[in-house]
Design brief:
Distance between the termini of chain B: 44 Å
Shape of chain B: globular
Strand content of chain B: 15-25%
Number of helices of chain A: 10
Structural class of chain B: alpha/beta
CATH architecture of chain A: Orthogonal Bundle
Radius of gyration of chain A: 21 Å
Order of helices and strands of chain B: HEEEHEEHEHHHHHEHEHEEHH
Oligomer: heterodimer
Shape of chain A: globular
Number of helices of chain B: 12
Largest sheet of chain B: 6 strands, mixed
Largest sheet of chain A: none
CATH topology of chain A: MetI-like fold
Helix content of chain A: 55-70%
Strand content of chain A: under 5%
Number of strands of chain B: 10
CATH class of chain A: Mainly Alpha
CATH superfamily of chain B: P-loop containing nucleotide triphosphate hydrolases
């Protein structure tokens, strides 16, 4: 049985003890680890899916001429500014009993949160990737083609040449996903188990909860954890993306 | 189609020249090339001369199978290359190397650039094995080093392309086109941005390639270069071939008056 569990008040002596954050927070054991885990699981999964969809779309749109291309580009760019609460509402409708995904029973689940973050991150990944791949000179793709490259080889060369921009796209998508509150709150419900560990609570929704309850030190602490997490992920992604083709 | 088998031995044994037959091509309704008929044979250097904007690059790109002509045929033997399946045409494309006016190098090491043609000819399993070897630091390739030697850059394999001068970059581009052992080599204004020393290296490499049996086509507006390296010269004016013949004949006794005027620098475009 899953139920929401309000966290206890901050009391004297609860801070700066020696747990893994070097700060004793007024939560059940494993609470912070669990919301970090949920945040990472949801956001990284959403961004991986967004990249798998967005990058091929960016390549296809970037290097194909078709009627309505400008409209497609405009839609992608518009999608980069989608309001997250609206996305959350639409996803909630989609996964509710009456919605097209109602039979999957996804309301207040991590899967629903992944869907909403996927919807938010995909236009960002696609739009920034599109800008990156269209900046690659035709001559580089021509060279790959004339040396006997297939369409896939030419696409791989393009990705390799645009890798800095694509890494930026992935990081921008991750930033959009992991910093997002509105939609995950709506579709995830900000739920913790009876033992205090997170089901659908993320760092951002936890920060929002703490701030709303006036526990600003804890909110700031969680904010610091979130920023550190993003910093580490950026470092890893940049390291991988910086590899030469 | 056996003629376009990916086997190198069968390619060499059955190879013939490329024939453009009554080829016309244009863009957005504007004719660029009109009724071009031209043969490119192996073991010769054919230089296409003509002023800028006259269709030399379009001609080279048609030979490289970038585009299908609006009309006419591109033949090897009796086979129209644009009537082949995609896979067969890929095999035909892989017999052709090309150097562009700009080096168009990938942002990678010289070695990665020069070995690209080899890599795309490998199956995915072999590519993965090669990638794994590279991860553990084994990226040596005798073919790459030999090819770089042809253009005087034997020690440059590990350099990043970003560290090359313009001339060195173009020489790497030349080595890259030669490295996978093509039968035809197409060069589009390959030395237009180069100093005399780098130009001489490229011209020497063209001669070596021709002597090795490749069919070489060079598009240029440099008359002196054409005279130095061409076995035959084709003169292209306003998208039409007005004269094709042995270099000496074309330069000393052209059939078409416009050829003489172009050689003398009297035709301005």
């Amino acid at each position: 049985m899953i139920e929401t569990t309000p966290v206890g008040p901050v009391t004297a002596g609860t801070l700066f003890d020696a747990n893994f954050l070097l700060v004793d927070v007024p939560f059940e054991q494993g609470y912070i680890e669990s919301i970090i885990r949920v945040s990472l699981l949801v956001s990284l999964t959403a961004v991986i899916l967004s990249t798998l969809v967005g990058l091929p779309v960016a390549l296809a749109v970037g290097f194909t001429e078709f009627p309505g291309k400008r409209l497609v580009v405009a839609l992608i760019n518009t999608g980069m500014g989608l309001p997250s609460v609206v996305v959350g509402l639409l996803v909630l409708f989609g996964v509710s009993n009456q919605g097209p995904l109602g039979s999957l029973d996804l309301v207040f689940t991590r899967e629903a949160m992944i869907i909403s973050q996927f919807v938010l991150a995909t236009p960002v990944v696609t739009g920034v990737s599109l800008a990156a791949v269209t900046e690659i000179e035709d001559g580089v793709r021509d060279a790959a083609y004339v040396m006997g490259g297939t369409r896939l080889d030419v696409a791989l060369v393009t990705i390799s040449e645009a890798r800095a921009g694509i890494v930026t796209a992935v990081l921008a998508g991750l930033g959009r996903a992991i910093s997002e509150v509105g939609s995950v709150l709506i579709v995830g419900g900000n739920i913790v188990r009876a033992d205090g560990t997170s089901v659908t609570r993320t760092l951002t929704t936890a920060i929002q909860l703490e701030a709303r309850q006036g526990r600003f030190e804890i909110a700031l602490l969680l904010g610091g954890v979130l920023i550190a997490l993003v910093l580490v992920i950026n470092g890893i992604v940049l390291r991988i993306g910086g590899r030469r083709y | 189609m056996a003629q376009f088998s990916s086997s190198r031995s069968s390619q060499h044994s059955q190879s013939t020249g490329i024939l453009l037959s009554n080829v016309s091509h244009g863009f957005d309704g504007t004719a660029v090339l009109t009724d071009i008929t031209l043969t490119v044979s192996r073991g010769e250097t054919l230089v296409v001369i003509g002023p800028s904007g006259t269709g030399k690059t379009t001609l080279i790109r048609l030979l490289a199978l970038f585009d299908s002509p609006d009309s006419g045929r591109i033949l090897v033997g009796d086979t129209n290359l644009w009537s082949l399946s995609t896979d067969e045409r890929l095999a035909a494309r892989r017999r052709i190397g090309m150097v562009f006016q700009e080096p168009n190098l990938f942002e990678a090491s010289v070695q990665r650039n020069v070995s690209y043609g080899h890599r795309v000819r490998l199956g995915w399993r072999a590519r993965l094995r090669q990638w794994a070897r590279r991860l553990v630091g084994d990226s040596s390739s005798p073919v790459v080093e030999e090819t770089l030697e042809v253009v005087g850059l034997a020690d440059a394999a590990r350099r990043s392309t970003g560290s090359l001068s313009g001339g060195e970059a173009q020489r790497v581009a030349f080595a890259r086109a030669l490295a996978y052992d093509p039968e035809f080599l197409l060069l589009d204004e390959p030395t237009s941005d180069l100093d005399p020393r780098n130009t001489a290296v490229i011209e020497q490499a063209v001669e070596t390639a021709r002597d090795d049996g490749l069919g070489v086509v060079v598009a240029t507006h440099d008359m002196q270069q054409a005279e130095r390296i061409a076995d035959r010269v084709a003169v292209l004016l306003d998208g039409r071939l007005i004269e094709v013949g042995p270099t000496e004949e074309v330069f000393t006794n052209p059939e078409d008056r416009r050829t003489q005027r172009f050689i003398d620098g009297e035709l301005l475009y």
